[in-house]
Amino acid sequence: GNSVTQMEGPVTLSEEAFLTINCTYTATGYPSLFWYVQYPGEGLQLLLKATKADDKGSNKGFEATYRKETTSFHLEKGSVQVSDSAVYFCALSDASGSARQLTFGSGTQLTVLP
Amino acid sequence: DTAVSQTPKYLVTQMGNDKSIKCEQNLGHDTMYWYKQDSKKFLKIMFSYNNKELIINETVPNRFSPKSPDKAHLNLHINSLELGDSAVYFCASSRGGVDEQFFGPGTRLTVL
Known about the structure:
The complex is a heterodimer of chains A (114) and B (112).
Chain A: E1 3-6, E2 11-14, E3 19-21, E4 23-26, E5 32-38, E6 44-50, E7 56-59, E8 62-65, E9 75-77, E10 86-96, E11 99-104, E12 108-113
Parallel strand pairs in A: 2-12
Antiparallel strand pairs in A: 1-4, 3-9, 5-6, 5-10, 7-8, 8-9, 10-11, 10-12
Chain B: E1 4-7, E2 10-13, E3 19-25, E4 31-37, E5 43-50, E6 53-57, E7 64-70, E8 73-78, E9 87-94, E10 102-103, E11 107-111
Parallel strand pairs in B: 2-11
Antiparallel strand pairs in B: 1-3, 3-8, 4-5, 4-9, 5-6, 7-8, 9-10, 9-11
């Protein structure tokens, strides 16, 4: 079956530090890959996505590249802000007929200190 | 305008009770989902409906019964609540054939 493995948290960084959150996946076929973000007390929001190998997703300064050879989709940001503090989820989408099933990683809590 | 809304936001109840959580989306999507997020933030899909038909039904107790009266609504009814049902339940929706899912704000269920 499909699975997503994320680096364990929590991660604590100072403002303007470089962020990497590792994500690797196991899937049959060619899934789409996502990063979702969950701010405190809120639902999940799509941060970025990539639908095929070598695609780079980017949004709000965050980037992730779909690496088929290493089955990875690591999230990076060059300079984090306090407002980036949230839980980040890596996910893959498996086409199951007309419904796309998302398989999530365990989430990584990020805290950015001023 | 809220895209995916859930009610109630918080639900505190006693073991053995029956409760419902409602979800509505105004995005015109034809597929809706229920996810459970446990205390460690782990998210797992429970159900998915496409055009009011059940598509995904993961291994959940049959005390959980989803109901979709129309494409814009997917409600979750839970019978005989147990302590282990305490979690945050998220509703989501998507356009069939498109990967991106839009999530509601969640319903925090606490069973005492």
